[in-house]
Design a protein that fits this description.
By secondary structure, this protein is of the alpha/beta class. Helix content is 33%, strand content 20%.
Length: 708
């Protein structure tokens, strides 16, 4: 639904209207001046006064561009069609805009779910989207295609900023309040425990609410005995609920943790909605870098404060203006918009220019002289990741509090990448310091003579969206087969519903990489997930054969067993298919205890690729067994290698690290393999458990389990 279509007019001081009704691009020629016109769609929420801010900022950039191009004979003019993000069928709109040849690009989507839909659809039409959405999954999934441009860092950085602020206030422990099944909240849920551990903060829990238990969950978080609650509501309505419940808990109890809210709590819509109800609320939000002077100038023009995202929308328009002008200036190069934007942001010449009309005028002059100036925006530096672009590499956050129904800035935080191993994808890669220590001089354990080897490979999920779990298991299966394992020594459990899924554009093909080998080459699949219960899986491992289970592990005290498990996990449980009950921690421990009593194995290596896998394996006191998990007890594991054509993640980072290490050196020690996959598994801490009951991992080789 278009909510605004105004004809752009020249206004001297305050621009409150914009043009948004052009159906085609037209060249106007007169007095030797050529103006090339473009139409850009803008999709943003309009409630509680936000519409005024968006129309204002679009008018402001157009006014400054009028100044910037005043002496040019060849000009660019952008007109805007504005759509209300809250009152539009986002999917239908995205297809409509993708099909329209007169729409040059799209700006907007504040909400991560909407941005993901729009980005996926526009990519199919090779059309550019500038977004102020901050979900890390959105960026990682769409980065390599080159049509998504995020003008803020992802919420990986905002999560870091929130935790750093809590630490600066003296916090020693933290807890998270967030909502389930929200794309925005997912980044915080995924990264909170990992970053807290790296910053030396104790995690008192993650408290995940839904629409029916927000009060109960908030009270549980308040009772966590943490120093600070990091509050990440899914929407502005939940901001009010959570803050009021925290205050209620404070009046009824002796101790309530202090709280810090994410950027959902910041904006014209929030302050207008709640007013005095959120008095005293404190949080973090991305904003304009104060050094650019944009915020001061904005207040001078409009006698109002910036709302969240305005500086970033201004910069999106500015980059579009520059890029479209560059295309028209160098027509002979046949640049598309994607290439032109990359050329513009790559500018690193000595001269550096900002967002004001006079500065932008010099940028246009530099383009005409064949130069590539260093460009800063209203939000700050516009440096982008040089591998896939997509994300700015530095964002300024403001630490705010609500005082007298207004936002009061307490200070600023600027990310500098100090925790990153590289700048790729704006904070995704972190330098991890919390690596485990092992005793290199530990006395090894004397084991019986090795006679045989077994492998139990399990992809415990179902469905197309879980493609990566079956792909990873097939990759391990393929590796074992190449290393001499016969099928009668491998038990392969997977649902087998992706190779010929109707969404698979390559029927009969399963890969962990778009350019990799087909792993689905007549695999001998023994059981489908839907055929088995969690108890059945434990019986297979224990060797309990029956009418239903005609193939089980028949190992002896002279046999090594490899278990590789890939799927979803929750605290103390591995999810099994779509069953309500999964494979619990106590079930695994009991089965391994029974196997030990019966001397059913010599050594066992249990590799677990699942969220919270550390919580399932961290207390197993089993002789001869070693457990390596993709994440510790509080962390999620991370998917890897998104395929935009298939619309799925093709692998997991932990499993990718295992394959990479084994392909490089099959005889590597378990300690060396741990180190390699630890440093290459981003966003979680790979953990090793039960070494004291297994032996010296510096002396034990991984080949004992992977080479037949």
């Amino acid at each position: 639904m278009i909510i605004s279509k105004y004809i752009y007019k020249f206004i001297i001081i305050i621009i409150l209207t914009i043009v948004s009704c052009k159906n085609e691009k037209i060249d106007y020629t007169g007095n030797d001046i050529i103006t090339k016109e473009y139409t850009v769609a803008v999709i943003l929420p309009m409630e509680n006064g936000l519409n005024t801010h968006w129309e204002r900022i679009l008018g402001f950039i157009n006014k400054n561009m009028e100044i910037a191009q005043r002496n040019l004979t060849q000009k660019v003019q952008i007109y805007y069609e504005i759509y209300d993000e809250n009152k539009t069928d986002i999917k239908a709109l995205a297809y409509k805009l993708g099909e329209r040849e007169d729409i040059t690009a799209v700006i907007g989507c504040m909400y991560s779910d909407d941005a993901s839909i729009v980005s996926n659809i526009l990519t199919k039409y090779q059309k550019t989207l500038f977004t102020i959405s901050t979900s890390s999954e959105l960026v990682r999934a769409n980065a390599k295609d080159g049509y998504l441009w995020a003008i803020t860092e992802t919420d990986i950085t905002q999560c870091e900023a929130l935790l750093t602020k809590a630490e600066s206030y003296g916090a020693k422990s933290v807890a998270l309040i967030s909502k389930e099944n929200s794309s925005y909240c997912k980044t915080f849920i995924d990264w909170f425990s990992f970053q807290a551990k790296e910053l030396g903060l104790e995690v008192k829990g993650q408290f995940i609410y839904n629409d029916n238990n927000i009060k109960e969950t908030t009270f549980n978080a308040c009772n966590s005995n943490s120093d600070y609650l990091i509050c990440v509501p899914a929407n502005s309505t939940d901001v009010g609920y959570i803050y009021n419940f925290i205050n209620q808990h404070s009046t009824e109890n002796e101790y309530t943790p202090k709280s810090l809210f994410s950027d959902v709590a910041y904006g014209e819509n929030v302050i207008n909605k709640f007013k005095s109800e959120i008095e005293g609320l404190e949080g973090i939000s991305y904003t304009a870098n104060p050094e650019t002077g944009f915020e001061v100038s904005y207040y001078t023009y409009f006698n109002d404060y910036l709302s969240k995202g305005e500086a970033q929308i201004y910069d999106s328009c500015m980059l579009l203006y520059y890029s479209l002008y560059y295309i028209s200036l160098y027509k002979e190069n046949n640049l598309d918009l994607k290439s032109a934007i990359r050329t513009v942001v790559n500018g690193r010449d000595e001269n550096q220019y900002g967002w004001m009309g006079e500065d932008m005028e010099k940028v246009f002059e530099a383009f005409n002289q064949g130069e590539h100036p260093n460009i800063n925006g209203a939000s700050g530096s516009l440096d982008f990741d040089k591998e896939v672009y997509t994300n700015v590499l530095s964002t300024t956050y403001t630490n705010f509090t609500v005082y007298n129904n207004k936002y009061l800035r307490l200070g600023y935080i600027t990310s500098n990448g100090s925790n990153r191993t590289e700048s790729t994808l704006a904070g995704w890669n972190w330098r991890k310091t919390q690596i485990q220590d092992f005793d290199e001089n530990q006395k090894d354990i004397e084991y019986p003579l090795l006679k045989d080897k077994w492998a139990l490979l399990i992809a415990s999920s179902k469905g197309w969206d879980n493609y990566r779990h079956q792909a990873d298991v097939l990759s391990i299966y393929s590796m074992l087969k190449k290393n001499g394992f016969p099928d009668d020594r491998i038990i392969l459990i997977m649902e087998d519903d992706i190779a010929y899924n109707n969404k698979n554009t390559e029927q009969g093909v399963v890969k962990t990489d778009p350019h990799g080998e087909n792993l689905y080459t007549n695999p001998e699949i023994d059981y489908n997930v839907s055929e088995l219960t969690p108890s059945d899986v434990m019986d297979i491992l224990e060797g309990n054969e029956n009418d239903k289970l005609n193939k089980v592990i028949k190992s002896t005290s002279n046999d090594n067993i490899l278990v590789f498990w890939s799927g979803h996990g929750t605290q103390n449980e591995l999810v099994w298919g779509d069953l309500f009950m999964g494979v619990r921690k106590d079930m695994i421990k009991n089965s391994l205890y029974n196997m030990g009593v019966k001397h059913n194995y010599r050594k066992m290596l249990f590799l677990t690729e699942a969220c919270y896998s550390g919580s399932i394996m961290n207390e197993n006191d089993i002789p001869g067994a070693l457990f390596i998990t993709a994440a510790n007890e509080n962390e999620t594991s991370k998917a890897d290698n998104y395929n935009s054509t298939l619309g799925v993640w093709m692998s997991n980072k932990f499993t990718y690290g295992i394959r990479e290490q084994l392909n490089e050196d099959m005889y590597v020690s378990i300690r060396e393999m741990y180190y390699k996959i630890f440093i290459n598994t981003v966003g979680s801490h790979v953990m090793v458990y039960n070494t004291e009951n297994f032996g010296n991992i510096y002396q034990n080789s991984i080949a004992e389990f992977f080479l037949y």
